[in-house]
Amino acid sequence: MICLPAKPGYQKIDIKTYVKARSCYYLSVNEEMLYARRFLEYSEILYVLGGEVHLTVGETAYTIGAGELLVIPNYRTVVGFRQSSGKTSFCTAEFTCSDEMTEGISERVISVKEDGFFINKLFTRLSETMMESSGNQNYEGDAILLSLLYTIRRNAEIDDRSNFSLMVSVMEYINGNIGTMLTVDDIAAHFGYNKDYLARNFRARYGITVRKYVNDRKISMAKRLLATTDVSVQKIGESIGFPETELFEKYFRYHEKVTPQRFRKMHR
Question: How do residues 116-133 score in pLDDT, each as one tens digit?
Fold first, then answer.
């Protein structure tokens, strides 16, 4: 076990701040895989090398793609909610530490592609030193784990900055293309991101799902045009991505509980 200050500096060491590696292993499968249900006695880093892993921690679902990882606190139940298709490979490191060591980096998917080569090396050496260790004390493994956690934190900070820029771009893209049949898949494909990653970060940033934001913008535009202009219902539907009037009427009635025609009469 390594004890260290809670923050870098020359402060007196707080013995409550520590890290200790427990295990590290790799898994690779060439067929469909459903992540097995487990109760975590220790905290865990799940790092995906290839494919995707779909799992639920508590009540929160995560999809971790290649080059991404998830830090899971101890005493959590983890279970797969969707099978991974094709070849999937990942590695995990079990560890114990004080809470501040994982503060801000746990229970969130973090892209570590910036340091992918270095993290691969850290996991490889951690796995080797865990197999070589015969006693309870493994200072090299603890030091590697510490480096791993610091590297994850650095990538989380990079992720936060890039996510902010990405989410602003996504918002601008939606607003500029509200006249098309936007879907989460279309938006994710446009920006070259996994749709689960994009949707999760959009909701974390704005407190609303992508789908709900798109629907709210479309309905808001339609209501404004119905209430303040004489533009036909057909043209209004087309302006928000519905080339067929019948589809627009069904869409509007589903969200507002009245037809576009009735809404216009109520607000004119």
Answer: 899 999 999 999 999 887
Question: At residue 68, what are phi and psi to the nearest 5 degrees?
Answer: -125, 160
SS3 call for 202: helix
CB 181 within 8 A of CB 241: yes
Q: Is residue 89 a contact partner of residue 51, using CB atoms and an 8 Å limit? A: yes
Alpha-carbon gap, residue 224 to 229, rounded angstroms? 8
Q: Which two tokens stand for residue 164?
A: 């902010």
Q: For the domain bounded by 177-268, which CATH number is listed?
A: 1.10.10.60
Q: What is the pLDDT of residue 31?
A: 86
Token duo for residue 160? 């936060």
Residue 259 is which amino acid? T
In what order do the strands lie in the sheet containing 38-39? 38-39, 77-82, 52-57, 60-65
Domain 2-162, second-level architecture: Sandwich (2.60)
Phi first, then psi: what are they for 151, rounded to 5°? Answer: -65, -40
Residue position matching structure tokens 């934190």: 153
- Per the rule left: phi > 0, alpha: psi between -120 and 50, beta: everything else, 162 is alpha
* Spatial distance between the Cα atoms of 233 and 219, rounded to a whole number of angstroms: 13
Let me know how many helices (H) and strands (E) the chain has, helices first: 8, 10
How is the chain split into domains, by residue range?
2-162, 177-268
Task: Write out pLDDT tens, residues 16-48.
Answer: 678 999 999 999 998 888 988 999 999 999 999
The CA distance from 54 to 52, in Å, is 7
